[in-house]
Amino acid sequence: MPRLSIGHKANFDMLKKACENGDLALMDCQISETGESVAVICLVNRPDKSSDYYEILPIAMMFNGDPFDILNPPNMDEDGYAFPDSVHKGE
Question: Which residues neighbour 25 within 8 Å (Cβ) at sequence distance 6 or greater?
Answer without folding.
Answer: 41, 42, 44, 56
